[in-house]
Amino acid sequence: MREIDELRPLTAGQLLTLWREVRGISEDPLERTVLCNARIAAECCFCRGEPVFTDEQEVLAALTGRQLEGLLRRLSEGAPAPGEERNPAFDESRFTALREE
Predict the structure, then answer these.
(1) Rounded to an integer, what distance in angstroms lies between the CA atom of residue 23 and that of residue 17?
(2) What's the average pLDDT block by block, 10 residues per block, for the chain (101 residues)?
(3) Per-residue pLDDT, 93
(4) Measured between alpha carbons, how far is 36 from 38 in angstroms, rounded to an integer?
(5) CB 4 within 8 A of CB 52
(6) Residue 80: which of 46, 50, 56 has the closest Cα?
(7) Which residues have C-beta within 8 Å of that of residue 45, sequence separation ≥ 6?
(8) Which one, of 47, 36, 29, lies nearest residue 14 by Cα?
């Protein structure tokens, strides 16, 4: 798999636009789903500030179905991209409580 150090989530509006664009490409629901997921990955995956993939076809050529599914799961859960560091001692709930004080 190519190096990905940042996953940038899309807005709901951007997701809807992608879905509408892909909807017109294929009648088959499974094909539409795979194409839409690949297009989302192409838009969200970055390495050193540059897009990792140019389009959905490049995603489909580079990733297995399981790899694509894993990327999208991490993206939807807000999990860090492979290699992206997070402070393991950071406590989100404590941070939120302190910020509200």
Answers:
(1) 10
(2) 88 92 89 94 94 96 94 82 60 74 70
(3) 77
(4) 5
(5) yes
(6) 46
(7) 2, 4, 6, 7, 51, 52, 53, 59, 71, 81
(8) 36
